[in-house]
Amino acid sequence: MFRNVFLTTSILCLSVTLCVGVAFADSPKEEAPAEKPKSGPPFGRGFGRQNDPQFQEDHEVFFYLLEHRKEITRTIKMLDNGIETVTESKNPEVAAKIREHVTAMYDRVENHKPIHMRDPLFREVFNNAEKIKITTQETEHGVQVTETSDDPYAAKLVQFHAEVVSLFIKNGFSEMPKNHAVPEK
């Protein structure tokens, strides 16, 4: 009888230890910031490519802008064949990062160096990049961008993309893992 009680108690103790250990191992070691992911590509593959040396710098600028999103204003004017946006900040450092980001993204579209390809909208924008004309004009506090296309589908793509950029500014890091709809052809 003593042997059965000892065996049962030992098994029970081991089970409790195992359960507590598993629960403790699965619990977060430290509190993560409310908004910003800890490091690296935040939500799986598709945000960048390993053979792209410019990616890390672009990634850091994008995160900086998300961290300072409350200092950014943005307007979108819908055109029949695209959009005209003005993105600005009264903070000179943020305004400089906005300009840097726009220049980098223009380079990516122009030279077909896509990012965020797991998102259907971004994938379609890059797949139709040759149909999109982009012009930029610096403003006192940021940049004005005009994106147009003679192709009606590509024009819709830049309109949808402009709305998503505004969602990044509105929602910050929580917008990153979302997939965004593409317009109907």
What can you see in these coordinates?
There is one protein chain. The protein has 185 residues and is an alpha+beta fold. It has a domain at 72-175. α2 packs across α3 and α4 (120-127) crosses α5 (152-171). It starts with a helix and ends in a 14-residue tail after the last helix. It has helices at residues 2-26, 55-67, 92-110, 120-127, 152-171, and strands at residues 72-79, 82-89, 133-139, 142-148. The longest helix is centred in the first third of the chain and has 25 residues, at 2-26. Mean pLDDT is 82; it is low at 2-34 and 38-48. It has a 4-stranded antiparallel β-sheet with strand order 1-2-4-3, with helices on one face. The protein contains 5 helices and 4 strands, in the order ααββααββα. Helix content is 46%, strand content 16%. The protein is globular and about 40 Å long.
